[in-house]
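Feature request disguised as a bug report, sorry. It would help if multi-protein outputs had a clear separator. Right now it looks like this:
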Amino acid sequence: MNLTPALAFIVYNVSATGSLDVDTLFKLVLLTGMLARSVNMIASWFPLILGGVASYVRIQSYLIEGTRLDQRYISVGKGLEGSEPRPAISLRGVCVKAVEDSSLVLRDVNVQIMQHNIVLCHGPMGSGKSIFAKVILAEIPLSSGNIEIISKKVGYCDQTLWLPQGTIRDIICGFDPSPNESRYLESIHACCLYDDLASFPDGGLKTVFNGGINLSGGQRQRLVSNTTSLCQDEQLICLILY
């Protein structure tokens, strides 16, 4: 037990009154006990109050936020048999502000990403790579320009991992009750999860909870990458950022 506060309280009173009799000592002990309980109670409430205020601010900010509009255009139709692949993503004259009334982060971007291609977006920190990806996802509104994509089904593997609660199999298959088994196995092998699943007693039926706290960092990263690779739609667009 830490007696420093009680001793400091006693020394203060002795220095103020010049004496410490039995009555004064009894009152000091009684008051110190009462104050300790009250202070401990307030200290236990303080984190809960701060958490409640922070949650209220986040909810309030979400409720007063305007409706998000999807400014992307969907490219209709497929390429002819034997013809050249058409663009999966086209950005024309795209300008983006990270925050309202701020300078442009992306200025006059003109990009075409063709189907069945792997494209790397390289640049220094803070150059707008993540914003570029979130523009394609319609998570950030455009200041000007337009975006055309072949499908709104976009698999996105962010730097900050997020996993829903469920079994590994359900997470990979998007909680589809009748997934394509061969695609599921191909996806596991492609993302190097086969050995990990073999080491689990329940295999692919292992339950993931709390954002994957019961998995290692590498297993979480491979599992998130896995969720972007399994899709029966041939026009799926995958965005993976590291």
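(second protein starts here, but nothing in the output says so)
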Amino acid sequence: MVTLFHELGHGIHDMVSKTLCARFHGSVGTVVDFGEAPSQMLENWCWIPSQLKALSRHYSTLSEDYKKAWQEKMTLQGDSTEVPDPQISDEMLGQLLKARGVNQALAHLNQLSIAIFDFTVHDPTSHNAMEEMDISKTFNHLKREIWPIETPWDIGEGDDWGHQHSEYRSLVVGDYSAGYYAYTLYCTILFVSSLKTNLLILLSPRSSIYSADMFDTFFRSDPTNSAAGRRYRHELLEKGGSQPEMDTLLAYLGRQPSPVALYKEMGLE
């Protein structure tokens, strides 16, 4: 659902953008660092209790066939066949919200490893160096050094296994060539030592800073405020890339963007 809302953010940006030139229309008309911000901001609605309640629906309440299938499953498990409430329970909702930050640090490190791989293959020392580079081995080595998860390396396979890098279409498509960093642009690295021992790193994705700041400032207290929504549409989304994106953001926020909201979301404040 989070992914659906993220891509919906791109769709809304494209739908409501008003620019003289198509080149600057919607999210694809903005610089990569900024283009993800509106979509990332829309993801926040997936974590608002009232919105989750409204969006949720237990599948057994959709039709008689689903109800029958669910009751048969419950009977096999020895559980009650009483049809549950259509919407998500408060207990499950609380558990879901508590789990939002689980493995978030690992997710950031995963994105960081891909971004550094992207830079590595787009900036070889020479043409010959690029031709001689073992792409899979390079990717696996970086992954192992940055993402502290066990890999085939740990059972003696080395770095020349698998071709996971081929999954990431963004590395070779359009503006994202050497631009994957936009997902996890790290602004400050406080200290990095061997990832096998200690790691102290502060990741501050620029688009995530913008999205968290916008949501926290204008929507957190009232996520369905129509006046705030219209202002967001007219003052930010409509602009696309027709003017410097930072000018658009500064005018919308009325100040310099702040990472405080993101740090709170990540449990750092």
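Even a blank line would do. Unrelated, but nice: Residues 2-49+102-265 form one domain.
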